[in-house]
Specification:
There is one protein chain. The chain starts with a helix and ends with a helix. The model has no long low-confidence stretch (mean pLDDT about 85). About 85% of the residues lie in helices and about 0% in strands. It is globular and about 60 Å long. It has 2 domains: about 5-215, no CATH class; about 230-470, no CATH class. The protein is mostly helical. Helix 2 packs antiparallel against helix 8 (about 215-250), helix 11 (about 290-320) runs parallel beside helix 16 and helix 12 (about 320-325) packs across helix 13. It has 20 helices and no strands.
Length: about 500
């Protein structure tokens, strides 16, 4: 396949994940608004603690092995090693069954002490339901790794869409019936159960019968340093920050932080879909051509993500007040400022993360551990220093982790892969997005009511397209890959809007 076709495949996978994620997130935004209004800011503080446990426990149970499965599946497919591929699929199924059961058992046994330690002895039923969701999430993480390795993101996106929407609809009915926090946790249980059922039905198959199950040692050799890196950064960015807010302020404040964090996650869903699709592609390229191909495609991903996602983050920061007013109303007014902080820091953190991902795809998980360790240390020290400036200071400190990790990842990319970073095009797109700020601020000042949010978005989009077009447009090779995603009737329009490079 040509380079453009290969890159279009990545974009097609990311788009498939992203589009269905957008639809599910539209449902999710309605659900998020209902949840915030039903449980209130203090209830959102409880949701924050439950969300913390929901992601922390599966992290410990899976030990980053799903990421290793995705990497080695992609790499084995790139080498044409059918025996390894078949063995990896068998190993994936066994790990999903084993770790799913362990997850339910261990987290159920810990529900009583966790209720006493974190929730004043309350919400025991929610924690017991959470144990089921933790086990099922751990199992689904292994199964989804196989889909990622085969780059079957169209199927995976359908599965995620069905699971997320079903879980949120079931939870919505129970929230309206007055079941409160347990209804929120049940959304995860339903979502994961549907995901597992569909993944097993659509699980990738190969004609070859493996002589043996793929050995666990290579998976752990790659996964354990990555697990340690993820754990360190997670403890710093989620556990430490939440406990610092809870200890320094109130449960109400933690609820506002959680609301800002969740909406920031919504804004990053398309970018995360892009990274999800990019990782197995880079792993496959590494198996085919080594570091040279990874360096080439990483710079392409850097340019493209700068073009597409920078205006999203800039625009999100500018209209945060209108968005929160529409979704949650006045009780969460302070969360809008925190959300803007997250959007500003997301620009360097997310855009440069493609280089950190490239280092990971090349198998250097020990370096990822060092990078995340240094970044987490900087973040913890920043939070401790800035807590004197209140809620905003902690949020700024928490946002430093992604920036530091991505900057160090860029350095490792240049040193270890002997590759250069193509700054020129990416910086032009970033500057073009920053030029959106004055007209959008004027639009917001003239029409401050939340109902005019679409007008502000339109002003920003038109301004950005115009600046990009007249500052040199988009490279022809990038336009070619983008055009392959669209119907032929729309391809000329895209070239007219972004052409010139």
């Amino acid at each position: 396949m040509t380079g453009a076709v290969e890159r279009a495949r990545v974009l097609r996978g990311a788009t498939s994940l992203g589009v269905r994620s957008v639809f599910s997130l539209l449902v999710g935004l309605v659900y998020f608004s209902l949840l915030g209004r039903v449980v209130g800011a203090e209830g959102m503080g409880v949701v924050s603690i439950l969300s913390l446990l929901y992601t922390l426990f599966p992290l410990a149970f899976t030990m980053a092995t799903p990421t290793a499965i995705t990497k080695y599946l992609g790499e084995s497919l790139g080498r044409g090693d059918d025996e390894a591929v078949a063995g990896l699929l068998r190993r994936t199924l066994s790990l999903a069954l084993c770790m799913g059961g362990v997850g339910v058992l261990v987290s159920w046994l810990l529900s009583y002490p966790l209720s006493a330690l974190l929730l004043r002895g309350e919400n025991l039923l929610s924690l017991q339901l959470l144990s089921i969701s933790i086990g099922t999430f751990s199992a689904s993480a292994f199964l989804s790794a196989a889909f990622g390795g085969f780059q079957r993101f169209e199927r995976l996106s359908v599965i995620y869409f069905a699971g997320a929407v079903s879980g949120q609809l079931a939870s919505t009915a129970l929230l309206l019936a007055g079941y409160g926090i347990p209804a929120f946790v049940l959304s995860w249980v339903v979502e994961n159960a549907i995901n597992i059922a569909l993944m097993l039905y659509l699980f990738p198959k190969v004609e070859r019968t493996p002589a043996r199950t793929y050995p666990i040692r290579p998976l752990l050799k790659f996964g354990v340093p990555l697990f340690a890196a993820t754990t360190i950064s997670y403890v710093g960015s989620n556990v430490f920050v939440r406990l610092l807010i809870l200890g320094s302020f109130t449960l109400f404040t933690l609820g506002e932080y959680e609301a800002a964090l969740r909406l920031a996650g919504v804004m990053s869903i398309l970018f995360n879909s892009f990274l999800t699709s990019l990782f197995p592609h880079l792993s496959r390229v590494f198996g085919e051509t080594g570091a040279v191909g990874v360096g080439r495609d990483a710079n392409w991903a850097f340019r493209l993500s700068s073009l597409v996602f920078t205006p999203v983050y800039v625009g999100g920061a500018l209209v945060s007040s209108q968005v929160f007013s529409l979704l949650l109303g006045s009780p969460f007014s302070d969360a809008a400022l925190i959300f803007s902080v997250f959007m500003v820091f997301a620009i360097p953190a997310n855009l440069l993360s493609v280089f950190l991902l490239s280092v990971q795809a090349s198998g250097r998980s020990v370096e990822i551990l060092v990078i995340q360790g240094v970044a987490t240390l900087v973040q913890v020290l920043s939070c401790l220093f800035l807590v004197r400036y209140g809620f905003l200071g902690v949020s700024v400190g928490a946002s430093t982790l992604g920036v530091v990790a991505s900057v160090l990842g860029s350095y490792a990319f240049r040193r270890r892969l002997n590759a250069s970073v193509d700054w020129r095009e990416a910086l032009r797109y970033v500057l073009s997005a920053l030029l959106v700020i004055p007209p959008v601020l004027v639009s917001v000042a003239v029409l401050p009511q939340p109902v005019f949010l679409p007008v502000h978005v339109g002003v920003g989009a038109v301004t950005y397209f115009a600046v990009v077009r007249f500052s040199g447009g988009v490279r022809s090779e990038d336009l070619e890959a983008l055009s392959l995603l669209l119907p032929k009737s729309l391809s000329p329009l895209v070239r007219r809007v972004f052409g010139g490079g």
